Amino acid sequence: MRVRQSNRPCFTLFELVLVLAILIIVTGLVYPSLDAMYGGFKLTQSTDMVRAGWAGAKSHAIDEGRPYRFAVVLNKGNYRIAPDSADFWAGNSDASGTSDAINGPLVIEEALPAGIRFASTDSAAQASGPDSAGDSSMPKGSVDMSMWHTTAVFLPNGTARDDVEILFQSGGVSPLLMKMRALTGAVTVKTLNSEGNRP
């Protein structure tokens, strides 16, 4: 008489397909929350980038004794910091303001992380939709000077010309509203609800 072995040497095709189906279902359930969480991190990173840019513009305005401008491209993720004079905003590629390369003026042209864009606070009711989820930035250095929208001007006395509000949007994530007080320079960031209204 032969003794039957109870342990099996392999899995059946049905068992493998069942495990794969369960993994696909779990991944499909978890992905939206992971995507939204990552989008929230990118929005926070964007506000940190802008806040650092503002601090740099303010310190250069004080050190150099001339105003600095912070401008954005609306509905894109591009921003630019440079002295507030026509030499730096008229499209001159060699606008340096000084021949001293070490202590030259601050000129930065950057882009927010992919999928994040600046929006007008007037359009706060336009909640971020699926059309804003793609790459929303233009290549660095390719923005036409007429596209820049001045958001803040930092004065040599350490203040800004006006109060500032910037709206950051990304697909599938509640927008962030960043405010700066002109006189004190205090910056606050608030999350708006999904309709783009203030809570």
What does this structure look like?
The protein is α+β, with helices and mostly antiparallel strands. The protein has a single domain (13-191), classed as minor pseudopilin epsh fold (3-Layer(bab) Sandwich). The model is unreliable at 93-101 and 124-134 (pLDDT under 50). 28% of the residues lie in helices and 22% in strands. The protein starts with 12 loop residues before the first helix and ends in an 8-residue tail after the last strand. It contains two helices and eight strands. The strands form two sheets. The chain has a four-stranded antiparallel β-sheet, with helices on one face. Strands 4-6-7-8 form a four-stranded antiparallel β-sheet, with helices on one face. The protein has helices at 13-64, 86-89; strands at 68-72, 78-83, 108-111, 117-119, 149-154, 164-170, 173-180, 187-191. The longest helix has 52 residues, at 13-64.
CATH topology: minor pseudopilin epsh fold
- Which radius of gyration do the C-alpha atoms yield? 25 Å
Count the DSSP helices: 2
Task: List unreliable stretches of 5+ residues.
Answer: 93-101, 124-134
Strand order of the largest sheet: 3-2-1-5
The tally of strands reads 8
Biggest sheet record: 4 strands, antiparallel
Q: CATH architecture, please?
A: 3-Layer(bab) Sandwich
Beta fraction: 15-25%
Shape: elongated
Q: What is the overall pLDDT average?
A: 81
Content-based structural category? alpha+beta
Which CATH class is shown? Alpha Beta
Distance between the termini: 79 Å
CATH superfamily heading: minor pseudopilin epsh domain
